[in-house]
């Protein structure tokens, strides 16, 4: 089974990242979307009027409420081994208990329901469900809060093959980061995937995919996508989400270009060279890619009260189901991330070579892709089950970021 979430989530991510802006940041559109979808589980199945809060919520979700609710239940009731997920709905003691019991029965089975914790309890819940990465719940326990609906997503993975280390000047002479940093990351000779991809939105872009170590067939692939510096961040993030649809399946991105169709030499995004080699490649034309990227980290607090994000409608829908009054609302998200040499947080690599006679001589072209300017990142879950079947998390983008503030490779990793 594959959850049909990519389209609605991509559209929602575009609105959320537009609200956040073009600065260096990380967010989880999935975390926000799941919260709305959990609220949708409590709504009437028929959003009758176009101006109803249920209809507004469906518009924000990008799908009808029963479909969104089912997607939320499917993901939350079958958790991913590498992506911790949790939801909770808390309300004031004695409030919401007199309403119909249907709203509670409709929630995903894993959603915690109970009395509203104090601030220490809210903060403890945040720490517990984010591997300790977030210490403080993004909302405060005020006296006039009737209920809080919360979601948490967290992952800490090691690359299946860690990065090598390169001089930061490999980011390119035109990169503003080449002079700021001493060291950058270089993709290993095997295990990572790179491509130059032709897109309708931004022309040629460069793509790097780093897969994490898998657990019981489940994994995570972190996709980095860079375009020419003049391309707006929103366009690059949209392309990253488009390409993330196939990232979990280990397939070349749609629109991948042959290096033999490109001119040799320098561009702002890559350097293409050619050399005589021995190769078994078809027609003696071998294509090789490497990528150079910076380390990066981010921590952000996001205000999610913008109308297009749907939280006003979600509060009204939930309050109606619980027979509570909600005159105002607040919605926020705290997000953190780190991308470094060893993971999206040691990995052992075992190699074996079979030696045979030299193959015939041919030509190899190598493109070194330089992520030397701000670029987009999307982390996509993989979920492979027995007999080649896929689980509900397969192909779901979990976190996304706009990388504009790189960091040096730590001395310990250099």
Tell me about the largest β-sheet.
6 strands, antiparallel
Count of DSSP H/I helices: 8
- The percent range for helix content is 10-25%
The ordered string of helix (H) and strand (E) elements is HEHHHEHEHEEEEEEHEEEEHEEEEE
- The total count of strands amounts to 18
**Order of strands in the sheet with the most strands?**
1-17-16-9-8-7
Shape: elongated
What structural class should be given to the helix and strand makeup?
alpha+beta
β-strand amount: 25-35%
Mean pLDDT across the residues is 85
Residue windows where pLDDT falls under 50 for at least 5 positions: 45-50, 346-357
Task: Give the radius of gyration.
Answer: 23 Å
Q: In whole angstroms, how far apart are the ends?
A: 42 Å
Number of domains: 2
Protein name: Proteinase inhibitor I4 serpin
Summarize the structure in words.
The structure is a single chain. By secondary structure, this protein is of the alpha+beta class. It has 2 domains: 29-77 and 84-154 and 301-335, Antithrombin, subunit I, domain 2 (Antithrombin, Chain I, domain 2, 2-Layer Sandwich), CATH 3.30.497.10; 164-296 and 360-413. 21% of the residues lie in helices and 29% in strands. It has 8 helices and 18 strands. A hairpin with a 3-residue loop joins strand 7 and strand 8.
């Amino acid at each position: 089974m594959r959850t049909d979430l990519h389209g609605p989530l991509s559209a929602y991510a575009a609105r959320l990242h537009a609200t956040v802006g073009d600065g260096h940041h990380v967010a989880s559109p999935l975390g926000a979307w799941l919260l709305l979808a959990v609220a949708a589980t409590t709504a009437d199945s028929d959003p009758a009027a176009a101006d109803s809060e249920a209809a507004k919520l469906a518009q924000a979700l990008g799908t009808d409420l029963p479909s969104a609710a089912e997607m939320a239940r499917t993901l939350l009731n079958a958790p991913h081994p590498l992506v911790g997920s949790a939801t909770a709905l808390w309300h004031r003691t004695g409030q919401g208990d007199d309403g119909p019991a249907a709203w509670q029965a409709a929630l995903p089975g894993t959603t915690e329901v109970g009395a509203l914790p104090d601030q220490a309890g809210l903060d403890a819940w945040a720490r517990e469900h984010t591997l300790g990465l977030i210490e403080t719940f993004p909302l405060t326990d005020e006296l006039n809060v009737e209920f809080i609906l919360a979601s948490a997503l967290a992952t800490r993975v090691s690359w299946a093959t860690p990065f090598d280390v390169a001089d930061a000047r490999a980011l390119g002479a035109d990169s503003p980061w080449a002079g700021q940093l001493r060291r950058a990351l270089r993709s290993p000779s095997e295990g990572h995937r790179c491509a130059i991809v032709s897109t309708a939105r931004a022309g040629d872009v460069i793509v790097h995919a780093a897969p994490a170590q898998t657990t019981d067939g489940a994994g995570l692939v972190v996709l980095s996508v860079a375009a020419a510096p003049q391309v707006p961040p929103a366009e690059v993030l949209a392309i990253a989400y488009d390409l993330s649809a196939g990232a979990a399946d280990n397939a070349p991105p749609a629109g991948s270009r042959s290096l033999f169709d490109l001119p040799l030499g320098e561009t702002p995004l890559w350097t293409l060279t050619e050399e005589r080699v021995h190769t078994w490649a078809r027609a003696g034309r071998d294509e090789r890619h490497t990528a150079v990227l910076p380390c990066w980290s981010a921590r952000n607090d996001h205000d999610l009260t913008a109308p297009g994000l749907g939280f006003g409608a979600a509060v009204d829908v939930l309050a109606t189901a619980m027979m509570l009054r909600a005159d105002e609302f607040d919605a926020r998200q705290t997000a953190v991330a780190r991308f470094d040499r060893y993971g999206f947080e040691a990995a052992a690599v075992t190699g074996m070579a079979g030696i045979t006679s030299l193959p015939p001589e041919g030509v190899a072209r190598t493109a070194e892709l330089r992520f030397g300017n701000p670029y987009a990142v999307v982390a996509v879950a993989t979920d492979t089950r027995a007999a080649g079947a896929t689980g509900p998390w397969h192909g779901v983008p979990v976190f996304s970021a706009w990388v504009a503030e790189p960091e040096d490779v730590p001395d310990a990793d250099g």
